[in-house]
Amino acid sequence: HVLDRLLLLANRYRQRIARLSDVEFDRWTIERSAGANWAVDVESLDRSGQGAWLVRRGHDLRDAAGNLIEQISPYWLVVSRHQPTLGPPSAQAEFFNGLGDVKDLEGWARENRDQYRDFLRWESMVENLILNGLLPEGERVRLDVHYRFLCAFAHPTKFGYDLVRRSLSASNTLVPSEHVLSELALLYVVAISRMELETFVEFASLRPSLIAVRQPIAMKLSIERLRSGGRHLWFLGDDPSEYDFFAEANKRVWKTWDKTSSILESRLPMMEIPPSEVGYYADPLERLQHLHVGGSEMTTGFSHRSMW
Predict the structure, then answer these.
(1) C-alpha to C-alpha distance for 270 and 293, rounded to whole angstroms
(2) CB–CB of 250/300 below 8 Å?
């Protein structure tokens, strides 16, 4: 979904130059100020250690008269050009068949590697989302939580199995573990589907002369049903639940408690905490179990109800 969002909506990207001497940096700065052809799409050029960061715009498409008719995300070129099977520069001599020049292969592999680093690594994609205003900085933590959690199941790691075993042992007596596990999988399907539809609608709305949603009202209703059905996951763009206020209220008390005196009674009621100040959760599976069973904390006196 993150890659789709960048493909459909991004018009800028960050490009890292690993090494750039002071002399070269000064020359680039002068050339950019003078309007050099290579810099017409460069919005900023900043020093970064021994290298530099450039922010470039996407690719303009113009008609024969020079009128701008479309703006293509820079990620279109990346996806069309990137070759995952190419391997690193150091491996090219092993694959070289004697035709051409191995140095050309190494250069291509180096460019391919740098392209992945700048565009397709998770950190790079998230940074480009933020750069394009497609992800509020405050929601980066949320996105990373779900990326890490789902990564635990991308490979058969012990940690991933332990998460499931812990769920089975903790929830069997309170709520069927199969229910919680399958519900979480469905919640991810619902949340990502909703955001895919929202992204496509936004993509079409930016190009009214080129593309349109055939049934916009039906599409809007579908998006709202998905949002309503998956709201308790507290994904991107959603609001915290009563349990999240409960968890935040407890954290606030425990963080200020000196562990020697009694817990102070003078504290903010949990539902009066501003929603924007409620901290995010780290474990989606554990949180979903809490939503099902409800609970109370004896040390603070706070409690929350099951959502069902």
Answers:
(1) 19
(2) yes
CA 268-270-272 angle, 5° bins = 70
Longest dimension (CA), the chain: 79
Report d(CA 49, CA 278) in Å as an integer. Answer: 36
pTM of the shown model: 0.84
d(CA 154, CA 157): 8
Comparing 96 with 233, which gets the higher pLDDT?
233
Instruction: Look up residue 32 and give its two tokens.
Output: 């950019």
| Residue 184: its H or E element | helix 177-205
Compute the distance between CA of residue 183 and CA of residue 185 in angstroms, rounded to an integer: 5
Look at residue 10 and give its three-state secondary structure.
coil
Give tens-digit pLDDT for 231-288.
999 998 899 999 999 999 999 988 887 766 766 655 678 999 999 999 999 999 989 9
Nearest alpha-carbon partner for 236 in 1, 73, 25: 1
Q: Beta strands 42-48 and 59-62: pairing type?
A: unpaired
Would you call 195 exposed, middle or buried from its count of C-beta atoms within 10 A (0-12, 13-18, 19+)?
buried
The amino acid present at 119, given as its one-letter code, is F
Residue bearing tokens 């890292």: 16
How far are the Cα atoms of 83, 93, 96, 276 from residue 100, in angstroms, in the given order?
19, 12, 9, 59
- Which sign, positive or negative, has the C-alpha torsion 105, 108, 113, 116? negative
List Cβ neighbours of 116 (8 Å cut-off, separation of 6 or more). Answer: 82
